[in-house]
Amino acid sequence: xxxxxLSTSDKEVPKIKLGLQDKYEAEKKEEPHAIxxxxxxxxxxxxxxxEPVGYRILVLPFTPKEKTxxxxxFSQEQLDKARIxxxxxxxxxxxxxxxxxxxxxxxxxxxxxxxxMFARYxxxxxxxxxxxxxxxxxxxxLGTIGDLNxxxxxxxxxxxxxxxxxxxxxxxxxx
Length: 175
Known about the structure:
Layout: H1 3-8, H2 19-30, E1 56-61, H3 76-85, E2 88-94, H4 102-105, E3 115-118, E4 124-128, E5 131-137, E6 141-145, H5 148-174
Antiparallel strand pairs: 1-2, 1-5, 2-3, 3-6, 4-5
């Protein structure tokens, strides 16, 4: 090839192809990933969820965010572990007999759209696209939570203080 043919060529030089970038863009176009379900966007699919019968309650467990404020992404394994270990949930639906036994309960312990606490392994897990829901018995609710964010802040502070106290006790025992 001579310099003359290069300079007079009408053909455009192809741009550099980035194989991984093309692959990621193709995946984004092909298949939309399941959106993480939470109390704000559950209303779109709420009518498709099962209707609890009798004294049962349908609860959407708390799902941690996939990214921190600083931009750090959590792995899928970490998110799955956090989902399984969660003990807080958002009440979506209640069966017609939930809290109907006035001798046992007095007044209802919770209502639809309340945040509640339950035992780690309580209820039946139903996987759905974007997360899971649980069906609990009405007596498996341990308590209600007013402000979920404030609850986690308080819970984390208490946990931090307990760890500090344990460390102090261990250091005293060593001396």
